[in-house]
Amino acid sequence: MQQTITSTEAGRAVVMQGNDPRLEENASAKLARKRQEAQRASAALNDGDAPPTKAEKPSRPTTLADAAPWLLKPFAKADIEIKISATNREKTKGLASPYADMRCYFVRLDKICGVENWSHTITLSERGAVCALTIFGVTKSAVGDYPQAAEANPATSAEAQAFKRACAAFGLGRYLYSLGDHWAELTTDGKKFIDPARVVAQMYASLPKGEE
Q1: What is the structure's pLDDT at 41?
Q2: What's the whole-model pTM score?
Q3: In the predicted structure, residue 44 carries a pLDDT above the cut 60
Q4: Which residues lie below 8 Å from residue 173, measured CB to CB, with a gap of 6+?
Q5: Based on the domain organization, do 79 and 41 belong to the same domain?
Q6: Cα(71)–Cα(80) distance, rounded to whole angstroms?
Q7: pLDDT tens sequence across 100-147
Q8: How many domains does the chain have?
Q9: CB atoms within 10 A of CB 30
Q10: What pairing do the DSSP bridges indicate for beta strands 93-100 and 80-87?
Q11: Running DSSP on this structure, what letter comes out for residue 52?
Q12: Which residues form the domain of 198?
């Protein structure tokens, strides 16, 4: 049977069987449509009407709901300090209480929420300090107590406690309250832990896998 190549469609030869005019008409119509589509696409690009690209994911959360899982994440071990909250009778071992400096909280809030999306106010009274912390428009308050023992800056201590408690209300630093009691060896003067980094590592070992 005689075969005649009559047209090319998108780089592919279209083979016609014999001289059937209907086949030639269909091939010409397809080729014309392809040309029109190509011309429309070219015109759209020239007019700056390019196809929409996939929206980029925000670099940080934009709502409190989005930020919540990140606020719950523990601080780095290097950011955690421990203080002696009790000792045994011989003062050879102490009960370690973990904490993070307020600056760690500031850095975490700035990084997760952005400096423009959180703020706090401190109000002092005779009983202590009240911190009102606002994150993404939501405000939660907490109270900090003046220390019972004499300190050079009791107001500063109460402010820090109130701020950290307000942060815990949002989930930030809350895990520190659930690390449990850890007794560790003290120096000979009974004033410091011998190996605080090891104590912190032991505390973090109690966290669920993947969160330490």
Answers
A1: 60
A2: 0.69
A3: no
A4: 75, 100, 105, 164, 167
A5: no
A6: 16
A7: 999 999 999 999 999 999 999 999 998 899 999 999 999 999 999 998
A8: 2
A9: 14
A10: antiparallel
A11: P
A12: 64-204
